[in-house]
Amino acid sequence: MADRNFDDIVDKFAKNIYGTTKGKIREAVVWQDLTQLLSSQFEGKTLKILDAGGGEGHFSRKLAEMGHQVILCDLSEEMLERGSELAKEQGISDNMRFVHCAVQDVAQYIDEPVDLVLFHAVLEWISDQKYAIEQLVDIIRPEGVFSVMFYNANGLVMRNAILGNFHLATPHIQRRRKRSLSPQNPLFPHQVDAWLGECNMQIIGKSGVRVFHDYLQSRQLQQKDFPALLALEQQYCREEPYISMGRYVHVMARKQIQKDDL
């Protein structure tokens, strides 16, 4: 299976990711994780950051605005063009570099190890998922951090069971709509944790993204009192069992120093 390129549905993608209540929750939870990470692990430092498969650069541009040097790569040339135009409008182009390539191939464009890699909502669209993680970890400097968010197989099972779609309550059903934004390759958290461990990465933080929102009985409830819903999400998103039931899981892992690095 080829890795997913969103050039054919760029407008739909942009609207659905951050233009909805689910997108607002995703942004709030992940950005809170990242700002806490920056203050605890990299306080006062200007970082070299790779946003792997970052599309229009929603988080890239926030980080560039803070003064960090950000490389944004994506398989979609159209999304990169949009990201570049938005960076120009924000006056942050000098802090950004745009690379058109698959995440697995980005190492050839990186001249030195980076401090932080963002890899958000991309893994579930890739055929060889472990290989992609390995390639990105390789370009992180010792004690650098990997921020990976993935579509959670636990959440997919739970959502379909709650809806009464019992025949779909499995992570292995292939969806018919190829243009859909529903990922084809959900992952179990324990599998991603194991891959990170094999890559000498130590998990330092984990959050569930949308631990309540998608399980509400009606979409009207998602909007009726959104501030209260968002507060509830942020209250429980870093506690089990809620982490493991999020529709997405955000994991932050630090690259451990090996003897060869000393």
From TrEMBL:
Ligand binding (S-adenosyl-L-methionine): R26, G53, G54, D74, H120
Domain of life: Bacteria
Catalytic activity: 5-carboxymethoxyuridine(34) in tRNA + S-adenosyl-L-methionine = 5-methoxycarbonylmethoxyuridine(34) in tRNA + S-adenosyl-L-homocysteine
Name this polypeptide is given: tRNA 5-carboxymethoxyuridine methyltransferase
Record keywords, A-Z: Methyltransferase, S-adenosyl-L-methionine, Transferase, tRNA processing
NCBIfam families associated with the record: PRK11036.1
EC number: 2.1.1.-
